[in-house]
Predict the 3D structure of the following.
Amino acid sequence: MELLERLKILNNHLVTKNYTKVIEGCKKILKNNPNIPYALNLCGLALQGNKDILASITYFQKAIDIEPNNVAAINNLANSFKAMTRLDAAEELYLKALKINPNYVHALNNYGNLKQQLGDHKASVSLYLKALNFNPNQINILLSLASVYQESGNFEKSKDVAKKIIKIDSKNTSSHKLISGMLNYKEDKEHLKEMEELFEEKNLNNEQLTDLSFALGKAYEDLEDYDKSFKFLEKGNKLKKKKTTYQINKDTKLFNSIIKTFQDLDLNDFKKVSNNHKIIFICGMPRSGTTLIEQIIASHKDVNGGGELVYLQNAINQNFIENFKLDKQRIIEQATSENDVIEKLYFNLLKHHNFSLPAVTDKAPQNFRWIGFMKIFFPTCKVIHCNRNSKDNCLSLYKNNFASKDMDWTYDQKDIADYYNLYSDLMNFWNEKIPDFIYDANYEKIVKDKEVEIKKLIDFCDLKWDPACLNHHKNNKTKISTVSVVQARKPIYNSSLNSNLKFSKNLKTLFDNLKS
């Protein structure tokens, strides 16, 4: 078979995500012909698809060494660096690719993704629009544009772009899902009808059915048809669960290791000097009100809203965890080092956001696991733990289709209950270990007595009172890229209190397994 034909077949395998075949095929070709940039690039893309990011870098770099102006390889190498949070290197490469070819759509889109990740909405919109000049119907770029409009609170523009995508491809369920989060179906039944008709089509794949199931579940909840809503939510969760390999025993092992590691450490022994930025960590169970709390605090004139930053979790995963266990000796070594890896990595990445204000919020909910690290490595930080009615919290998890694999425990009632119990035990441990370090922000209290509770929250953060914190829904400083994007830009409302009662008969497994 001719080399060109072999490469064409391997490219088809890449499109169908058969990454192992691509890697094996490319390596066979490269064994006899080691200097073919196309094969090197193809192999790098397959390795990226297999999450072997380090190996992909080697192949992209070799392609560039052979062909220095290969914009595809430069762009793909930038993507690998972005995946490793080597943001300086990624940005430099995107700019290099665009210098060689200012109209290279893939680099425009990916650089836009990076700017969106960093909360620079203006720059990301500009890059997406420039890319769309060359192909106005490029669906993946239109989706990115719709999502950045949604993140920045421009819901009408977001809906318009999503509707344009549906006109191009009526089966683009990602757009239907996006729209569903921004609509109240009591006021707009036309989109519900579109989704119902699409749901009945026979040739949808599981991903499309999952998107529609969660979107229809939300629509019927708006219409107060809770039985029908649950029917769709249950289908969506079952489909999503089939895709995961989640096992609770891995999290059990990790949570037990956290408690065992920190229980006999005196966290006040480590007198580290902190960076100039005041960091306000906002954590708790996902869907516990963390986005609302960040919106409130980031409305303050002296606070930048950081959104869900992955930097602390990445630093801990890379340096202190192996096989779901913490390395206690390594923690002690780094805690007594003047140049510890956590603070260095964290603040090096933070600088990419160009935060100009004295304080920054970091709202990654599952950072509740790392409160001991916060006490050691960020001793002057503020830690706010968000909590709400456990049944309402768990229902809210079950109702949502999350993008992150870190949320794979949310698609099964028993898994949700078990994870919640692990979280509850760990928070009890932290509160006993370092009680004055953590502020408990209770969602129900804030809803019932907004001004009093918000003033207490701002006081805990050592900030002077700013009335803007009472109007958090007017705050556009914060990037909201979570499923809370719409709710967090509304005034505080009480309609979600005791929402579990509407679904209690369907969630017996979940609620019966929650610790009281």
In short: The first helix runs from residue 3 to 15. The beta strands are 278-284, 303-305, 321-322, 325-326, 359-362, 382-387, 438-442. The first strand starts at residue 278 and ends at 284. The two ends are 66 Å apart (CA to CA).
